[in-house]
């Protein structure tokens, strides 16, 4: 199976309390509802955009007609006063906007890019602020704080992720419909995503909480990404034996240990019994080490060795391990991995008797520039 990560070309946060402030260079994206020192209820909404040429290349030349899904992923940096349950909303933007060079902490404020009032303040271009919104679009504002973005309002494009008390608070929004229609130009152009709270919470006293995510300018290993996953699974064992217990040893005979950031590597998994059967003849004996393969319900995962973070988790659809007449294998795109870091591969297989076995033999490699 295949997982391809695309990194953003720009991001920023719109703050209703600071209608002309640009925060395009901030390392943090804020998604918040809060009460200002004047007692007004305010909100902040992140914008984020990914390059359409990379999206088209993946869908047209790599996915190549297979079924795929797309996920918008953001890593949580900090949170405060979060409720037990909440939902995040995501929509495709309708207008081109300028990232700008500002930061929230700048004094005086920087006003050269997108803000609550402007999509490009240098050009004097405001978000739609008066009268009826253009067909199939909407925005929202409170009182005199007009602006706050303009997005396609068709419910078909609304993407949501709900969180409970015990949920992982990182964002992983399924945005397949939006990405598919960008690729097919059903949405005229890709101008990015907007993230927001529900209209029942914004500009009200109903809820006040803060979510902060790492932005496109973060100096950490947690930048946002658009993750495209597709099914390239094939399974043909030929005359090879499918393993039926955990009494096997795996190896990666073609692991080169270092890989260029833009490379694609096919990892071939060699499998043999821990205690191979012996074959006797009149004068000699030998071990039978003919190649074995994983069952069809087998998956790979990828871990960052330094942070112990799971970069790609086991997925029963998108990280299945394939098989051909040469053995078990899978393809890994290195583009979505941070350079100059070490990663470790892990394998999970579900045996015919229902037993789940993890193979963790320290198969590591480094991505280089």
Structural commentary:
The protein is 5% helix and 41% strand. It is built from two helices and 29 strands. It folds into two domains: 2-230; 241-368, Immunoglobulins (Immunoglobulin-like, Sandwich). It is elongated. It has helices at residues 52-63, 176-183; strands at 2-6, 10-15, 28-35, 41-49, 68-74, 76-80, 86-92, 118-120, 125-126, 137-138, 151-152, 159-163, 171-174, 193-196, 209-214, 225-230, 241-242, 248-252, 258-260, 264-273, 278-280, 285-287, 292-293, 298-304, 310-312, 322-324, 327-333, 341-350, 356-368. Strands 2, 3, 4, 6, 7, 12, 14 and 15 form an eight-stranded antiparallel β-sheet that branches. A five-stranded mixed β-sheet has the order 19-29-28-24-25, with no helix packed on it. The longest helix has 12 residues, at 52-63.
